[in-house]
From TrEMBL:
Gene3D superfamilies: 2.40.40.20, 3.40.50.740, Dimethylsulfoxide Reductase, domain 2, Dimethylsulfoxide Reductase, domain 3. It is an enzyme of class 1 (oxidoreductase). The keyword Zinc does not apply. GO terms for biological process: anaerobic respiration. Its EC number is 1.7.2.3. InterPro entries: Asp_de-COase-like_dom_sf, CT_DMSOR/BSOR/TMAOR, MoPterin_dinucl-bd_dom, Mopterin_OxRdtase_prok_CS, Prok_Mopterin_Oxidored. This is Trimethylamine-N-oxide reductase. Pfam families: Molydop_binding. It comes from Salmonella enterica subsp. arizonae.
Length: 301
């Protein structure tokens, strides 16, 4: 995809930024491999084209792709079947495992001797778990923070047009089962506080039987909007679930996010509700600070 506009003001493209950073560490040649930005675009396209040929997908040359003012359409009627070649002939089309087969036990992982990730699937009790697990007496609701329907992670959360499609009372929605809502005196459309020992957010309640009792959901990507910037106990006025999740990896091996291991409590919010300011843009400081382009250095040096 071509850029919509060239970098504005002092902004630069990522390639130039990282190239200059590598130059400071004498690693520019290793980073660029002798190619400029356009050279890398051509290489990526050519490598993709080569991979496509092996799958019966034929792409045009880079020049045709880059210069034509329309989408490229190509047919690929064959239905994708995972590991199809392996399933049809496992001897000639082995998998990328040491044995070439589907492995339940991995000696490679076992030899790492991690306490929390051994060589075969095992159950490990979580730090916190709903429905009778650790921490559920104090925080009884399991919070899901899955991908949203109306944006890409946090991208387009600032779009008022899109927020009108899903926001509740100007907040990110929290979905809650009718039983859990009734027990807490929460009705559809209420502003609620979702909280645990790590943080707290405001959200708009959506009461729905699509979610099991003991389970709530706030989509990830909602913009963070603290009522007191820099305060660890700040209340997020819009509904970012990141303030509620654990900041630990899933295991010593994977080190992935553990966003789905989160317990919370929800209550109807009766306090003062400040306006959401996350979408207002940066505060102008021109009158208070002298602006000096980075290229000119510090005038007081």
């Amino acid at each position: 995809m071509k850029q919509v506009v060239s970098p504005q003001f002092e902004a630069r493209n990522d390639f130039d930024i990282f190239r200059d950073l590598c130059r400071r560490f004498n690693r520019e040649a290793a980073f660029t491999e002798g190619l400029d930005e356009m050279g890398w675009l051509k290489r990526i396209w050519q490598e993709g084209s080569q991979q496509g040929k092996g799958r019966g997908i034929h792409l045009p040359t880079f020049e045709v792709f880059w210069n034509q003012q329309e989408y490229i359409e190509f047919d690929h009627p064959q239905m994708f079947v995972r590991h199809q070649a392996f399933r049809e002939d496992p001897d000639l089309e082995p998998l990328g495992t040491p044995s070439g087969l589907i492995e339940i036990y991995s000696k490679t992982i076992a030899d790492m001797q991690y306490d929390d990730c051994q060589g075969h699937p095992m159950w490990f009790e979580k730090i916190e778990r709903s429905h009778g697990g650790p921490g559920s007496q104090r925080w009884p609701l399991h919070l899901q923070s899955v991908h949203p329907d109306f944006r890409l992670h946090s991208q387009l959360c600032e779009s008022e047009t899109l927020r009108q499609q899903y926001a509740v009372g100007g907040k990110e929605p929290v979905f809650i089962n009718p039983q859990d809502a009734s027990a807490r005196g929460i009705r559809n459309g209420d502003i609620v506080r979702v909280f645990n020992a790590r943080g707290q957010v405001l959200a708009g309640a959506v009461v729905s039987d699509r979610y099991a009792p003991g389970v709530a959901r706030i989509h990830e990507g909602a913009w963070y909007d603290p009522d007191k910037g820099g305060d660890i106990n700040a209340l997020c006025k819009y509904g970012n679930p990141n303030v509620l999740t654990l900041d630990i990896g899933t295991s010593q091996l994977a080190q992935a996010t553990s966003a789905h291991t989160t317990l919370v409590e929800i209550e109807k919010y009766t306090g003062h509700i400040d306006n959401v300011t996350a979408f207002n843009g940066p505060v102008e400081m021109v009158a208070q600070c002298e602006y000096v382009p980075a290229s000119q250095g510090n005038p007081h040096d």
